[in-house]
Design brief:
- The protein is an alpha+beta fold and 69 residues long.
- It has one domain: Nuclear Transport Factor 2, Chain: A (Roll), CATH 3.10.450.
- The chain contains 2 helices and 3 strands.
- The protein has a 3-stranded antiparallel β-sheet, with no helix packed on it.
- It is globular.
- It starts with a helix and ends with a strand.
Length: 69
């Protein structure tokens, strides 16, 4: 379910997210998402490659942080 939501959000809001370019590698952009789960907050920072085309988005890397609410 999470991956379907990720894909849908990226496809439907590409122009919003694609402006947050990676400082070290400008062909990538960052996609940040936070999800509350019970008493925990999951924070994800995805590195997305859109250099092939805006219709082909690839997750190159991601970081996950977990903290109490």
């Amino acid at each position: 379910m999470f991956l379907n939501g990720l894909r849908s959000d990226l496809e439907n809001h590409y122009r919003v997210y694609s402006v947050l370019r990676d400082e070290e590698e400008p062909r990538f952009f960052r996609y940040l998402v936070s999800i509350a789960d019970g008493g925990l907050m999951h924070e994800f920072d995805f590195v997305i490659d859109d250099s092939t085309s805006p219709d082909h988005l690839f997750i190159e890397d991601f970081e996950h942080e977990l903290s109490p609410l």
